[in-house]
Write a structure and sequence with these properties.
The protein is an alpha+beta fold. It has two domains: about 10-65, no CATH class; about 70-290, Aromatic compound dioxygenase (Protocatechuate 3,4-Dioxygenase, subunit A, Sandwich). It is about 25% helix and about 20% strand. It has six helices and 14 strands. The strands form four sheets. It has a five-stranded mixed beta sheet, with no helix packed on it. Strands 4-3-8-9-10 form a five-stranded mixed beta sheet, with no helix packed on it. The longest helix has 21 residues, at about 25-45. The structure holds benzoic acid and fe (iii) ion. Benzoic acid binds near residues 101, 104, 215 and 248.
């Protein structure tokens, strides 16, 4: 006789079908997916129309992805899943700089730059000059040499370079390598707040929920130094109206700073500036790998896939 399942018995039966999964982590993850997905259907008493809509939404989310756009990451970001995964995997010791979301605008091979150079190579977008100084040290304050530091940010209209089309040149992004003093300094223009891409399914979800798509202004930093925990983070501009309601939940209090205005004149690098400029001085503190708290991973690349 064929076995028959009803709404009270099907969940256990589906979970049982995964009992021979050889990879224990994959088995655990698949069982949890089934348990939680079935619980969602039960809790909401999901209708067939709603389930069809959900499948269509996920289909459109996939169809919106391309080599220049990742709608599933936006979905994860706007549902707070990216920051939940970050919180679980990137708990750092007291005093260490905290991490936040990577976002979709990182580019692998950014132009290499030297300290005190200007990284906003097209000045036609205007924006107030910004001099950004950063020191990278261990938790005891010893400078970290040979750290690779990527920086990238929006222009004063809230756009990243790669949003200006496939032929746009890379600007407002650079890769530095620290010397013995562990310092990275550059000139650029003050970033502005911007909406995450909202012309796709994720934007429709936000609109349907009366949620705005805005992120507060920030500079992105990504740091890789041998023997240290990988760091992906932002420094947010204090006073931004979206600090309290970031569309992707990425703000941490410890990552907000004033970017104070300085008068025209001689800047800290000795150059002469003909108008008022903003000044960021930031001290990044990285834990050594053996100082990491249990459960935290050393670097994004060290994570193994449950199917691999
Ligand atoms: C960003 O900061 O670049 C970003 C993060 C998450 C979603 C969209 C943009
Ligand atoms: Fe950003």
């Amino acid at each position: 006789m064929p076995r028959e399942f009803d709404q009270f018995t099907i969940t256990d039966e589906v979970i049982d079908r995964f009992k021979n999964t050889p990879n224990p982590r994959l088995k655990q993850l698949m069982e949890a997916v089934v348990r939680h997905a079935h619980a969602l259907v039960q809790e909401t008493q999901l209708t067939e129309t709603e389930w069809s809509f959900a499948i269509d939404f996920l289909t459109r989310t996939g169809q919106t992805c391309s080599d220049r756009r990742q709608e599933f990451i936006l979905l994860s970001d706007t549902l707070g899943i990216s920051m939940l995964v970050d919180a679980i995997n990137n708990a750092v010791p007291a005093g260490a700089t905290q991490s936040t979301v990577l976002g979709p605008f990182f580019v692998q091979d950014a132009p290499v730059a030297q300290n005190n150079s200007r990284i906003d190579l097209d000045d036609d977008h205007g924006g107030q000059p910004l001099y950004a100084e950063a020191t990278f040290t261990d938790l005891q304050g010893n400078p970290i040499e040979s750290a690779k530091v990527d920086v990238w940010h929006s222009d004063e209209q809230g756009n990243y370079d790669i949003q200006y089309g496939p032929d746009a040149s890379l600007t407002r992004r650079a890769r530095f390598v620290t010397g013995k003093d562990g310092r990275v300094t550059f000139w650029t223009s003050l970033p502005a707040a911007y909406p995450i891409p909202y012309d796709g399914p994720v934007g429709q979800m936000l609109a349907a929920a009366n949620r705005h798509p805005w992120r507060p202004a920030h500079l992105h930093y990504m740091v890789d130094a041998p023997g240290f925990k990988h760091l992906t983070t932002h420094i947010f501009v204090n006073g931004d109206q979206y600090l309290e309601s970031d569309a992707v939940f990425g703000v941490k209090k410890s990552l907000v700073d004033d970017f104070p205005e300085r008068p025209a004149g001689t800047a800290p690098d000795g150059s002469i500036v003909d108008r008022p400029y903003r000044h960021l001085v930031w001290h990044f503190k990285l834990p050594r790998l053996d100082q990491m708290l249990p459960g935290a991973s050393a670097a994004p690349t060290s994570r193994s896939s449950p199917t691999g």
